[in-house]
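Ticket #4471: complex job returned nothing on first submit. Input attached below:
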Amino acid sequence: MGKTAVITGITGQDGSYLAELLLDKGYRVVGVTRRTSTQVNERINHLEGKLELVSADLLDQSSLTTVIRDTRPDEVYNLAAQSFVPASWAQPVLTGEFTALGVTRVLEAIRSVDPGIRMYQASSSEMFGLVREVPQRESTPFHPRSPYGVAKVYGHWITVNYRESYDLFAVSGILFNHESERRGLEFVTRKITDGVARIKLGLAAELRLGNLDAQRDWGFAGDYVRAMWLMLQQPAPQDYVIATGRTHAVRDFVRLAFECVDLRWEPYVVVDPRFVRPAEVDLLIGDPAKAKAQLGWEPETTFEQLVERMVRADLERLSRTVTV
Ligand code: NAP
Ligand code: GDD
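Support reply: We reran it on our side without changes. The output follows.
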């Protein structure tokens, strides 16, 4: 009998890639969705019939406990969150409810039903914020710079606390930015590749962005969900940094993306103060040495391949909408 996994955040970028990985491994996969008046499951529609979907919300303890009690999973991957950093200034309390207290609710559901269930918490490099060390590793102190980052620090420490208090197999993956053609259009990489494709196809004349100097350690989401699974297969629960160990400025991503369609970026990109944040995370670069040594994990997709695949995917998608 294969294992059962529950994934919160199944409709998100990472949820879709993780579901594919676990289904390939023979898992029964149960995805948690929240009730909405319209169902937009575009990232997981291709998995229809293979996935079980159940309804619960990070705000609602009893719905989470019911899911865990009814499905009795071996593993829970808590990927659900309010994950867009600018929205966390607009909705700081709600971000705390989802992204911070939501983690406690998932842990409580596990503890009350079966403390033997293994749990993965989606922690973030945003916790390093105003970085105290370069590169950032598991021992680097946190200094979050947004309500989202603060909420993730809470989620991280409550996971560690339940591990230490109740002996749960609960781990925190400190993942640096990871992207794909399934990334939400509001995040900078996808905003750029979508914008480049629109400009190339004559659907847009410019691309408006904020801080071009911010540096991020960008990897491919498909590589990163492998690390989540590996963390739950270890003999003991531990936290890991997952990153490529390379960093690039937003400007580098922009330049490469325009080069993919044989255009120079300078005539099209407009810096717009509306997209500049109240407090910025200037530089993220992770040290994935522990993950490499203990999990045998390494990223397979380079930065250049990532940019290329995202631009190609957006060009293909948008080409289908252009009438000839
Ligand atoms: P995403 O695409 O924004 O997906 C977020 C998911 O959370 C969606 O399925 C969303 O459901 C769900 N969700 C939001 N609020 C919820 C609630 N109250 N109850 C139940 N579900 C709720 O995020 P992602 O990029 O896949 O990231 C996955 C996780 O990793 C997040 O926790 C994120 O903060 C964290 N993380 C991401 C990165 C990255 O670079 N991608 C890096 C580090 C950490 P709806 O579809 O209904 O909105
Ligand atoms: N979104 C966005 N839009 N970001 C812009 C823009 C713009 O127009 N212009 C410049 N940026 C800069 C931001 O200021 C930031 O420094 C950088 O691009 C990356 O922004 P996002 O792609 O929105 O990602 P993020 O780094 O804030 O957060 C993502 O990665 C975290 C891991 O470090 C999210 O996926 C978080 O959920 C995740 O935890």
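The domain at 4-178+218-242 is CATH 3.40.50.720 (Rossmann fold). Closing as resolved unless it happens again.
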